[in-house]
Amino acid sequence: MKKSRMLKSLFMMVLALGILTGGGALSSASGGPYTSYVLKPLGGNNYTNFHTKSQDSDWLLNKVTALTNTTAANFWGEYDGLITTETISAKYTQKVATTYTTISFYRNVKAGSNVRLAMENANVSTSNAFVSGDVEFW
User: Fold this and answer.
1) Does a structural domain hold residue 114?
2) Which residues, in sequence order, are CB contacts of 53 under 8 Å at separation 6+?
3) Number of folded domains in the chain?
4) Contact, 67 vs 55, CB < 8 A?
5) Mean pLDDT calculated for residue range 91-99
6) Domain for residue 2, yes or no?
7) Residues 95, 117 contacting (CB under 8 angstroms)
8) Fewest beta carbons less than 10 Å away: which of 2, 13, 102, 116?
9) The CATH number of the domain where 126 resides is what?
């Protein structure tokens, strides 16, 4: 009887955590490659999943490896404040490159915090463009 109640409580806590974190959209990995993310028409935004930072740092690294139907994309960092999402960096315009760009945050983001990479087409377009690259959230 006690064991059943304990399992039920544990299940409810896990369910509540899943709801609070967006249904499992968090990743504990420090990042990695992203492939063919859509850059929506007319400046529409797209985002990676939130990732848990492993270090107290005020930056992330991003490298663009491919662009389709555009020559550049804008990127910036966002912080998951659980209630609201906060933009924590300026926009950085990137083209295809072999090196990483450091996207500096306006403030220090502690290890264990959740951040994501936001993106948009740097050019005004009425059709979708696509970007691939690699991001490290540290």
Assistant:
1) yes
2) 30, 109, 110, 111, 112, 113, 114, 115, 137, 138
3) 1
4) no
5) 97
6) no
7) no
8) 2
9) 2.60.120.510
Q: Which two tokens stand for residue 67?
A: 């662009």
Q: Is 18 left (phi over 0), alpha (psi -120 to 50) or beta?
A: alpha
The amino acid at residue 18 is: G
Question: What are 25-81's pLDDT values in tens digits?
Answer: 444 447 899 999 999 999 999 999 999 999 998 999 999 999 999 999 999 999 998
Whether residue 6 is predicted with pLDDT greater than 50 in this model: the reply is: no
Residue 54 amino acid letter: S
Residue 41 falls inside a structural domain: yes
Domain boundaries, position 103: 25-136
Strand (E) positions, the chain?
26-27, 31-39, 46-47, 50-52, 57-68, 73-80, 85-87, 92-94, 101-109, 114-121, 129-136
- The total of other beta-carbon atoms located within 10 Å of residue 115's CB is 25
The DSSP code for 21 is T
Residue 5 lies in a domain: no
